[in-house]
Design brief:
This protein is α+β, with helices and mostly antiparallel strands. Helices cover 39% and strands 22% of the residues. The N and C termini lie far apart (86 Å).
C-alpha cells in the first residue's frame, strides 16, 4: 500500500513539473495522454487496485482519484495560460495586423475656395499680392475717393485702432475691404498692373448674413486702353471657370466711390440657368461689385490718367463659395464655428 501511494505521489509531481514547462497546446495534450490516457501511468496504476486487500483498496483509490483530479486541473490552468500568452504575443508582434488609422484632416472649405480662385486668375496673368490687414485711413478710404462724412468711416461700420495717427495717412484701422491694396499697388510704379489681392477683411457687423471677419478677393488691372469690354471678358472668364461653362454673367449700373462707371455683377442661377425659379425669381443672382477705376483713385496712386485706365472688382470669398456649392445654411457664422460635423462634409 505504501509503495503504491508513494508511486502515485511521484507521478503527480512529475506530471505537474512537465505541465508547467509546456510551450504549446500540442505538448500539453501529449502529457495528458502520458499520464491520463488509456495506457497512461495513472490509468495503469489504478488497474492494480484489485490486487490490494479490501482494507487498502479504498484508501489507495482516494489517493489515485485525487492525483488524477490535480493533473486534470493543472492541465486546464496551463491551457488557459497558453491561450492568453498567445493572444498577447500576436497583438503586440504581428506586424501584418491592420492598425487604427488616425483621422485625416483637410483644408477648410474657405481655404479651398481661395486656392481655386487664385489658380483661375493666375491662368490669365494675374499676380497674387498681400497687403496689411491693419491699415491707414488713407489707403482704406481717402485715396479711394471716400468723402470724410461717408457712412463707412463711422465707428459703427469700421474697426478703428487706438494708435497714434499719421498727419498724412490718418487714423489706423482694420481694413474693411481688399480695395485698400489698390493704391499701394499703383505706388510701385510698375505698369501694366494685373493684381489679385485675397485677404481677411473686417467690418463691424455680426448677424446671420455677416461676420466681423470675412475674406475678399480684389482684382485690379491698370494699363493702356483698358475698357469695359476687358472687364466684362475677365468677369465672364471667372464665372465660367469657377461656376461652370453653362453659367454667364452680366453687369448693371450701380454706384461705388472708387469706380466710375460702377456695376453690380450678376450670374445666371445655378438651379434654373437663367429661366427663373423660386430661388432667383428672375434667373439672376447678385455676385459682387466691379467698375472702371475712378480717375481720383488713379491720381492718388500717382498714375498718369491720360495714359492709363483700369478696372477693378471685389467680391466676398464666402459668398462665391456658397453660390457655387449650393451650401444651404441659414447662418454664415457656421463657417467659422468649428463645427466638425459641418466641416467634414467638404
Amino acid at each position: 500500500m505504501q509503495y503504491m501511494e508513494e508511486k502515485l505521489l511521484g507521478i503527480k509531481n512529475n506530471a505537474i513539473s512537465l505541465i508547467l514547462e509546456t510551450k504549446s497546446p500540442k505538448e500539453l495534450e501529449e502529457i495528458r495522454i502520458q499520464f491520463l490516457g488509456r495506457n497512461g501511468e495513472v490509468t495503469q496504476l489504478m488497474k492494480d487496485l484489485p490486487k490490494l486487500s479490501k482494507e487498502e483498496r479504498p484508501k489507495i483509490g482516494i489517493v489515485a482519484n485525487n492525483v488524477k483530479d490535480i493533473i486534470e486541473e493543472t492541465i486546464k490552468t496551463r491551457e488557459k495560460s497558453l491561450k492568453e500568452t498567445k493572444s498577447l504575443h500576436v497583438s503586440s508582434l504581428d506586424v501584418t495586423e491592420p492598425g487604427i488609422k488616425p483621422p485625416l484632416g483637410h483644408l477648410h472649405l474657405v481655404t479651398q475656395a481661395i486656392r481655386e480662385i487664385t489658380t483661375i486668375f493666375a491662368q490669365i496673368g494675374f499676380t497674387r499680392v498681400r497687403y496689411p490687414e491693419i491699415e491707414w485711413d488713407w489707403y482704406a478710404f481717402t485715396s479711394l475717393n471716400f468723402p470724410e462724412n461717408h457712412p463707412a468711416r463711422d465707428d459703427w461700420e469700421t474697426f478703428f485702432i487706438k494708435q497714434q495717427s499719421d498727419q498724412k495717412k490718418g487714423t489706423v484701422l482694420l481694413t474693411p475691404h481688399t480695395s485698400s491694396g489698390q493704391v499701394r499697388e499703383m505706388e510701385k510704379g510698375k505698369f501694366p498692373i494685373k493684381m489679385l489681392n485675397i485677404a481677411k477683411t473686417y467690418r463691424r457687423q455680426s448677424d446671420v448674413s455677416h461676420t466681423p471677419m470675412f475674406h475678399q478677393f480684389e482684382g485690379l488691372v491698370v494699363g493702356e486702353n483698358m475698357a469695359i469690354s476687358d472687364l466684362k471678358g475677365t468677369l465672364n472668364y471667372f464665372v465660367k471657370s469657377y461656376f461652370g461653362e453653362n453659367r454667364v454673367s452680366r453687369i448693371r449700373p450701380y454706384h461705388f466711390q472708387f469706380t466710375e462707371p460702377s456695376f453690380e455683377v450678376d450670374i445666371t442661377c445655378g438651379v434654373c440657368l437663367g429661366k427663373g425659379c423660386r430661388l432667383c425669381k428672375e434667373g439672376w443672382l447678385e455676385l459682387g461689385g466691379a467698375g472702371m477705376v475712378h480717375p481720383n483713385v488713379l491720381k492718388a496712386g500717382k498714375v498718369d490718367t491720360k495714359k492709363y485706365t483700369g478696372f477693378a472688382f471685389g467680391w466676398g470669398v464666402e459668398r462665391v463659395l456658397m453660390m457655387k456649392e449650393g451650401i444651404k445654411i441659414d447662418d454664415l457664422r457656421i463657417l467659422y464655428g468649428n463645427d466638425l460635423d459641418f466641416l467634414k462634409q467638404f
